[in-house]
Amino acid sequence: MTIRKKVTILGSGSAGLTAAIYAARADLEPLVVQGLQAGGQLTITSDVENFPGFPNGIQGPQLMEEMLKQAERFGTQFIYDNAESVELSQRPFVVRTSSNEILTDTLIICTGASAQLLGLDSESKLMGHGVSACATCDGFFFKDKAVYVVGGGDTAMEESIFLTSFASSVTIIHRRDSFRASKIMVERARSNPKIHWLLNTVVEEILDVSQGSVSGIRVRNVRTREVQDLPADGVFVAIGHQPNTELFVGQLDLDEAGYLITDGVKTKIAGVYAAGDVQDPLYRQAITAAGTGCMAAQEARWFLLAHEEAERESNSTQIPQAAAKHAH
Ligand SMILES: Cc1cc2nc3c(=O)[nH]c(=O)nc-3n(C[C@H](O)[C@H](O)[C@H](O)COP(=O)(O)OP(=O)(O)OC[C@H]3O[C@@H](n4cnc5c(N)ncnc54)[C@H](O)[C@@H]3O)c2cc1C
Question: N or C, where is the chain less crowded by C-beta within 10 Å?
Answer without folding.
Answer: C
